Amino acid sequence: MVNFELHTERLLIRNFNSGDALGLISLSQDEKSTRYTEDQKLSGLEEALNEINSFSENATEGFGKWAMILKDEVNFSGWCSMLRDDKTGEVSLGMRVLPEYRNKGLATEAASACINFGFGTLLLERIIGKTVAENPASSKVLRKIGMKHETDFEGHGYLCEKYSISIDDWRKAKGEK
In degrees, to the nearest 5, what angle opens at C-alpha 27 toward C-alphas 151 and 15? Predict the structure, then answer.
């Protein structure tokens, strides 16, 4: 496993470890977090630890699912991810935040850090984000980090939206040429 860390003003984004298991269980059982996903509900510590091990096994350099740790409290607040689709090659951004940490800008902060890492370090050409149309909070996060609506599609029985940002648009937003 490659050691991974990103730092923002309020967050440490890092590889999952066993200390994140209870937070991961709580997040997996939150109906609002999983309503539109195929994420499995974790029922106990063993399942959570297996899930954390799978994150480590499936991580490749620069890609994976990472724990979001609120620095001030040293608490698990959610997760974010950048994953490459083996079929399309597209890199997709994802995130989930525990209920007590929502509406505080943490998802936007984490997503922005991932985008900066993806373009600034990995030199990706494009990053996408997908969300269910009924979830305006996620759409708002994607727009805040500079993504533009690309298309609508049907996914898991829901109307979904696909957003994207290119490295050129990211550079322009940062004032680079």
Answer: 85
Computed on alpha carbons and rounded to an integer, the radius of gyration of the chain in Å comes to 16
- Determine the CATH number of domain 5-173: 3.40.630.30
Two tokens at 30?
């939150």
- Residue whose tokens read 């991810």: 81
**pLDDT at residue 62 is higher than 90:** no
Give dist(CA 63, CA 86) in Å, integer.
12
Domain positions in the chain are: 5-173
The string of DSSP codes covering the chain is ----EEE-SSEEEE---GGGHHHHHHHHT-HHHHTTS-PPPP-SHHHHHHHHHHHHHH-BTTBEEEEEEETTTTEEEEEEEEEE-TTT--EEEEEEE-GGGTTSSHHHHHHHHHHHHHHHTS--SEEEEEEETT-HHHHHHHHHTT-EEEEEEEETTEEEEEEEEEHHHHHHHTT--
Summarize pLDDT for 158-171 with one digit per residue, the tens: 899 999 999 999 99
Considering the chain, what is the average pLDDT of its residues?
Answer: 91
Give burial (CB, 10 Å; 0-12/13-18/19+) of 159. Answer: exposed
pLDDT of residue 130: 96
